[in-house]
Amino acid sequence: MRQALEPILKINNLQTHFFTKAGILKAVDGVSFEIAAGEIVGLVGESGSGKSITGFSVMGLVDPPGKIIDGNINFKGKDLSALSNDQMQNIRGNRIAMIFQDPMMTLNPVLRIETQMIEAIQAHDGGVSREDARIRSRDTLGLVGISSPDERLRAYPHQFSGGMRQRVSIAIAMLNRPDLIIADEPTTALDVTIQGQVISEMQKLCRETQTALLWITHDLAVVAGIADRVCVMYAGRIVEQGLVANIIANPMHPYTQGLMGSVPSQNQRGKPLQQIDGMVPSMLNLPVGCAFQNRCNYANEKCSNMQPDITQVADGRQVRCFNIPAGQQL
Amino acid sequence: MSASANKQSYDLPAAGLRKFWLDFSESPTAVIALFVFLIILFIAIFAPWVSPSNPYDLTSVDIMNSRLPPGSEDFSGNFYILGTDGAGRDMLSAIFYGLRVSLGVGALSGLVALILGASVGLSAAYFGGRFETIMMRIVDIQLSFPSILMALIILAAFGKGVEKTIIALILVQWAYYARAARASALVEKNKEYVEAAKCLALGDKRIILSHIAPNCMAPLIVVGTLQTAHAISLEATLSFLGLGLPITEPSLGLLIGNGFEYMYSGDFWISIFPGIALLITIVSINLVGDQLRDMFNPRLQK
Amino acid sequence: MTAFILRRSLQSIVVLFIMSLIVFVGVNLVGDPVDMLINPEADQAEIDRVIRDLGLDRPVSEQYWYFVVNAFQGDLGRSFIFGEPALKLIVQRMPATMELALVSLLMAVVFGIPLGIYAGLKPNSKFSKTIMAGSILGFSMPTFWVGIILIMFFSVHLGWLPSTGRGDVATYFGVTSSAFTLDGLSHIFLPAFNLALFKLSSVIRLARAGTREVILQDYIKFARAKGLAESRVVRIHLLKNIMIPVITIIGLEFGSLIAFSTVTETVFAWPGMGKLIIDSIYNLDRPVVVAYLMIIVVIFVMLNLIVDILYSVLDPRVRIKGVS
Description:
The structure holds three protein chains of three kinds.
Chain A: E1 7-20, E2 23-36, E3 40-44, H1 51-59, E4 66-75, E5 78-79, H2 85-91, E6 96-99, H3 103-106, H4 113-122, H5 130-143, H6 149-154, H7 162-174, E7 180-184, H8 192-209, E8 212-217, H9 220-226, E9 229-234, E10 237-243, H10 244-249, H11 254-261, H12 301-305, E11 311-313, E12 317-319
Parallel strand pairs in A: 3-8, 3-9, 6-7, 7-8
Antiparallel strand pairs in A: 1-2, 1-4, 4-5, 9-10, 10-12, 11-12
Helix pairs in contact in A: 4-5, 5-7, 7-8
Chain B: H1 2-8, H2 17-24, H3 28-45, H4 47-50, E1 72-73, E2 79-80, H5 91-127, H6 129-143, H7 147-158, H8 162-189, H9 192-199, H10 204-240, H11 252-263, H12 269-296
Antiparallel strand pairs in B: 1-2
Helix pairs in contact in B: 3-5, 3-12, 5-6, 5-8, 5-10, 5-12, 6-8, 7-8, 8-10, 9-10, 10-11, 10-12, 11-12
Chain C: H1 2-30, H2 33-37, H3 44-54, H4 60-72, H5 86-121, H6 126-140, H7 143-157, E1 170-172, E2 175-177, H8 182-214, H9 218-225, H10 230-268, H11 273-282, H12 286-314, H13 316-319
């Protein structure tokens, strides 16, 4: 297990809301977590839980009508939410890099790979010559397992397969040796066999280069394979976070339990898959009290009146629920 | 999701007139434009009754009154709010009569082009096969040439005159209607009600006319408004060049053309005022057409 | 790539033949060829002689054959008014028209694309709304009327610019153009601007629509995520992507620029092909009309071909076969 080092990213009560004509959408409603140097953290949640917006908020890439209205994002001592766009430009692609979900749409179809890689280098280090940048790009392509990198540099994105394109995106993310990579569903659009390869390679890369990784996904199984810690998100808030091993072995929040139960596994062969009844509430119309109450088996009156706060549990675990067995609470 | 979007794609304008107006009035510019256009239409239809004088009645026109600037009076006490032209005709009246001709020619050619083009387009979509390929090829080739060139070619071949100009305008426009009709008919053709009609063994003509055509009306109306504006502009250009309508049927274009020479000596009103009238007409029709197009565009529907 | 060019060239030649057939049919079968090609003031003996000369008493297919053969040799008839070969007249005037069309195109592109991109990036700013309103106006106003207004304002009223004719020419790099002299520029400005105005509004609309679509794409967001300056994102990532449809349409519309030059040249008395054709139609100088039509058809077909090839060069997805 990794030694917990000083956190490089500390998010505290992040609130990102969307001001639409239909109302205020609280996409991220009070999210707090930390990532230590070299640590791999998973951010799990279904669509609409606000996980991607959390990632974009850190990068400062929230499109209007969205806006970060509260909270701070502390990265190596600086509050990112308070920085100007120009200042953020220095950090993006440099100290914090991002990988998107669909590699087909992420790479510009009319520019060569080398153009898209060299510009990422030269944007942050004006002194680098084009040839040096090209060599660095080529080496990084080799690092992510792309053969004949010299030829590949001259190619266009549509000449690559999906898995290769994603590797190129990973390479671009690693070009400037960032401290943190935010990966937003990087393997969701890939074939299952390729998924496994990309996941294990990313894990290896991050370990070797001591790069912190925030892996955003809806798939708990993926997180289980790669992450040290995991945060579970629901309706804009984190409902449970802690060490992966602990959470998988003993999920405490009813939602996490539901997620675990719905993952098909060897143990449950022959039994019907569990489902979580109900649907995510509309983000424009969140209920008073706990957002999960209408799908929860343990919900009681307290849950419908008040929103639960974070409860600290053993081993650095946090759960947002009123119904934790008393013995487990700290 | 897509099933409901399909059904909702085009609303018949006649049914749900109230909804139509609600949607249309979302753009105040379009409402103003419609209002202005209705005024122009009124003037055009009732020109003989609305004009201060009949500029083509030779007995009421006196060459001594020629080239009077706007706002002047003549010896008989007639007030010329927009001045007079080179022959002594009242500009305002000339413009009113000119509107009549311009709108008349534009609307007539548009209507015939619509009927012709829609028939071809609908049949092409419905019957498909070689017929469709050939017709659409012709449409494509014609549409790749600018309309003014087509018109010039036709007028060069057939000569000048009222009927020939109208025919030229029709021949230029039908392709736009054909293409629009075919596009929407193709969409409609695959819908269930067409299959149902076929099951009932209704004749082809009946299916096309009674079932498919009404549902294609909306985009055709949009094309119609924009094309009419285009036709009016084209006719004005041709008349200005001396190749369109003859002097006996003076459209706004001809008035502008006639007044062109006087501009160099400073008598600008003979050319400019008909031009302004033409501009207002075309812009108002275009604005209405734009709003109609946005209204019927399924991609912009809420 | 070469196979592609070859195929398109062959198609173009087929279209050329079809169009020549249509022109031939139009002149000889629809109109009265005697009227078309023979001076209306000729007497009967003259008419008979010309009929024999032109082969109008021969069967139609033979006439077409001679028509094509003559066309290849550059003989498209002789003008009634000028007495010169029609083709020669047109070719003499072509440089002036091309010059006008090219300067207009340049104006429309140089002003239109940045304005359109701006309107696409900031759709709610006052300036953008003014641009869009202006483009509707530009689209609605008939070209000849804009020309008249321009003349009235800049020539008659303000006296800044001349209203008619073409200025002095100069030759650089083997190209003779009036755009190379100051006097030439002052003469070409108004008509080129007039011609450009119509195209300007459609270029602006195109650039704006393209920008609005492209700016939402993931690759733009990804470019920003790499920390690229916004100016680079717009200059390289956005521009290259909207250029493809924009250039295609601009290329095709160059043809309509040439067509509309007929109007502008008449208004500004610009000595180009356009003015010639209008005068010829008016004066019933049919051979010139026929020659002009054939030239125009050739220009159009070539233009389509060039644009097709340009499109495949610009879009690497068309040029190089991909994986998926």
